[in-house]
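Worked example 2:
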Amino acid sequence: EDIVLNYNKKWVDTIVFDIPEQYHAEYLPDPVNLNTEFGSYSFQVLMEPGQIKFFRTLEFKKGRYASELYEAYREFMEQMVKADKTKIVLKNTT
């Protein structure tokens, strides 16, 4: 059966966390940018003194897609979920 996306939908999320200035990032995830015929996804984490900022955009494109594309659609969704679950590591410098 075909894959049917009945809507064009875009979500844009920005989350800002205030953190004590003595913390620095021991690990920040690399930015992720996915562009497929089904839609697009981007994720980025930035650290500034006293703040961590998360930026995430997800867009689905309305359409009917052949069932042969199911694996590509599943992979797009899987990569998006993996990026959403990415963790950062902070370290106290004092």
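The CA atoms of residues 10 and 59 lie 4 Å apart. The longest strand covers residues 9-18.
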